[in-house]
Design a protein that fits this description.
The protein is built from 17 helices and no strands. By secondary structure, it is an all-alpha fold. The mean pLDDT is about 85. This is MFS transporter.
């Protein structure tokens, strides 16, 4: 491995951290926006939905940009646009300007997501060594830092100053990382891929794998605390450990995931991960006390951690398809699970217990288990 290879690997990892820092910093802004605008939970819900809509609308645009101009150029455009995005919404003067700023925030964050995952795939190809899981581990660290410090910063210095501080921190990361990215422009004179969604079914099947892996993650993020508090009588302090246990084990396993993939292969790692996630969700769903349920969420985090990174690596290496186009399909399908499914779960929770829903989500993971053979394109060693 050359020094340049190492620089490119750490540069793309830093971009994942910066993206996670921005997304994590968004979470504590929601109550601040509600207070400033004087809006209800339902009106805030529409703003949050706009974030998801922005991501899903813009991801294909950056997928096409990756395919035409390379991931390094696409990620530079998206990253600098995303850098100041928290400031936009902090200074927007009313409900609809804020909603528009959040829609744009979702768009540039989603575009950056597609481009940086494509660059991670390019680094994997160049090094013939898996890095995707640890890149997502850096995203988790960024999200933890943004969410953990955001609330305290907003209380201490205010909404606008918090946004400026995060912007300066992200800008510092970009100044260091962007010049060190692996350049992956198409060769001069190479045929330009058509700007259309893939016509082969493979990326959509891999996208289905990512979708069904991310739905349980969203369900734990948004509903674990409610499940522990309302159905098991846990205190609010204990209820918060549901997602914390899952997020903690996910972060650890993402840093271990590349080594596991290199040793056992993507298909075997994905199958073991799916089985562990199923067991964890089943334990959480069948539990009648907070302790075992939290242990179930922790086990589920171990399993969920590497399913999506493997799917993204597989999508970026579909034979005969530009990495950006395959990744735009898989990221759109995958993130729709974490953005849109939790609302549907809220509706179902009025008819069924959350325990029953977690059991159903364990069964849902039969789908990525059945499709796991498609992950073989994620392997690099020996090519």
């Amino acid at each position: 491995m050359t020094m340049m290879d190492g620089r490119a690997r750490w540069a793309v990892s830093a971009l994942f951290f910066a993206n996670g820092l921005l997304v994590g910093s968004w979470a504590p802004k929601i109550p601040a926006l509600m207070e400033r605008l004087g809006i209800t939970e339902a009106m805030a819900g529409l703003i949050v939905l706009g974030l998801g809509a922005g991501s899903l609308c813009v991801m294909p645009v950056f997928g096409a940009m990756v395919a035409r101009a390379g991931s390094a150029r696409a990620v530079r455009v998206a990253a600098w646009a995303a850098c100041t995005s928290l400031v936009w919404m902090s200074v927007a003067p009313g409900y609809w300007p804020v909603a528009g700023a959040v829609f744009l925030f979702g768009g540039v964050i989603g575009g950056m997501d597609v481009a940086m995952n494509a660059n991670a795939v390019a680094v994997e190809r160049h090094r013939r060594r898996a890095i995707m899981s640890s890149c997502h581990g850096f995203w988790s660290l960024g999200g933890l830092a943004g969410a953990g410090a955001g609330g305290a910063l907003i209380l201490a210095v205010g909404e606008v100053a918090h946004a400026v501080i995060v912007t300066v921190a992200v800008a510092g990361v970009l100044v260091w990382a962007l010049p060190r990215l692996l350049e992956d422009r198409p060769a001069p004179g190479a045929d330009k891929p058509p700007l259309r969604l893939p016509r082969t079914p493979l990326p959509y099947l891999i996208g289905l794998m990512a979708l069904t892996a991310m739905i349980p993650e969203g369900a734990i993020l948004d509903w674990a605390a409610v499940y522990l508090q309302r159905e098991m009588g846990a205190s609010l302090a204990v209820a918060g450990w549901g997602f914390a246990a899952c997020a903690g084990t996910m972060a650890v396993m993402r840093f271990l995931g590349d080594g596991l993939r290199r040793r056992f292969g993507a298909v075997a790692t994905l199958r073991a991960s799916a089985g562990m996630a199923m067991a964890g969700l089943a334990l959480a769903g069948l539990s009648d006390a907070p302790g075992p349920a939290i242990a179930g969420f922790a086990l589920a985090g171990i399993g969920i951690a590497n399913m999506v990174p493997i799917a993204f690596s597989a999508a970026g290496n579909v034979p005969g398809l530009a990495a950006g186009m395959g990744l735009s399909v898989v990221t759109m399908m995958g993130y729709s699970g974490i953005l849109l499914a939790p609302g549907s779960i809220g509706f179902l929770a009025e008819k069924l217990s959350l325990g029953t829903i977690y059991l159903a989500l364990a069964v849902l993971l039969v789908i990525p288990l059945a499709l796991s053979h498609l992950a073989r394109t994620a392997d690099f060693e020996g090519r």
